[in-house]
Amino acid sequence: MKPALLGAIPPQQQGPTEPESFAGRLRRHHAVGRWGAANENQSWTPNPRSVPALWRYAELRPFAVEAAEFVKGEDAALRVITHLNPGHPDYEAAVGHLYSGLQTLKPHERMTAHRHAASAIRFVMEGEGGWTAVDGDRMTVGPGDVVITPGGLWHEHGNDSDDGLVIWQDCTNDPLVNTLGANFFELHPQRSHLGTQDRTDTLARYGGLLLPDTRRRSEASPLFSYPWDKCYEALVAAARAGNHSPFDGVIMEYTNPVTGGPVTHTLGAKLQMLAPGEHTRSHRHTGSVVYVAARGSGLVTIDGVVHPWSAGDTFCVPSWSWHSHANPGTDEAVLFSYNEFPLLDKLGLYTEEADER
């Protein structure tokens, strides 16, 4: 005779197997029958909780300015207006696992140096005199500039101007890192890291056509500064060369100059231009995207709903949502965006589909 499993109940002693009774008894052991949750947790196609959303800069900027008056001291490091997705207002993500928020720096303000496991991309919305320092590289920033902060590196920020706020958009993978239970945060013991390590200039070293020895490759970008003037010039040159996507207009990617790949392990970033009168084809892909309107105005159609946007606005496209862009105006429109594509590429989960209608 085969030995019985320890704790097993003989068949004649088992209770009723009505579905509701079974599920209730099973839940008391913190378990669930997978067949009952298959449609929710095992969808036939991507079914994200995030929904399309648009945040108007003209509406949120007054809150960012007001917060600068009463959020002070060490709390100022987190003086950020977070964009919450209506599909999950309890989860601090603009869409998918992408964080988005507006940070304000007052004149002569300086934040304590810190580092964290999450990676960040910053897109400057407005203001002069702002600066950020990453791993010893202190960079002056202005509107349209992009700064990369790879995870784990000391960094700090400030505003050297005598008057006027500096506002930039924080674009991070905090939601992903927090979901994975892998985030760390640390303040620098000397308040600033700039006096404790050699100063560098990553733009001078990695921002040209020729690069230093790249045999010691790094997945994270060694270039932290992507000035607007240089990036916009590259976009215009690509337009002249006929580099055009039927889905995105003229689109270029911010890249790691050493690897040619994305600027961080999990976050990618792009800059695109829509010509006057342009209407792109519709497509969808896995991976969410957050867009920031850098210049001009236009329309984005997401799952059949048209959303008008103008300079400064932020909008999101959830994973596997049909979307297309249009510029009905007479001037060019430029969009900055960041996405989850590098992570999905590494996992073998990125896929794309065009609307053939």
From TrEMBL:
Pfam name, any one: Cupin_2
Listed GO molecular functions?
Answer: dioxygenase activity
Keywords from the named record: Dioxygenase, Oxidoreductase
Q: Identify the domain of life.
A: Bacteria
Report the residue ranges that make up the Cupin type-2 domain in this protein. 102-165, 271-336
UniProt keyword Lipid biosynthesis, yes or no? no
Query: For the region Disordered, what residue ranges are annotated?
Result: 1-20
Protein name (record): Cupin domain-containing protein
Taxonomic lineage is: Bacteria, Bacillati, Actinomycetota, Actinomycetes, Kitasatosporales
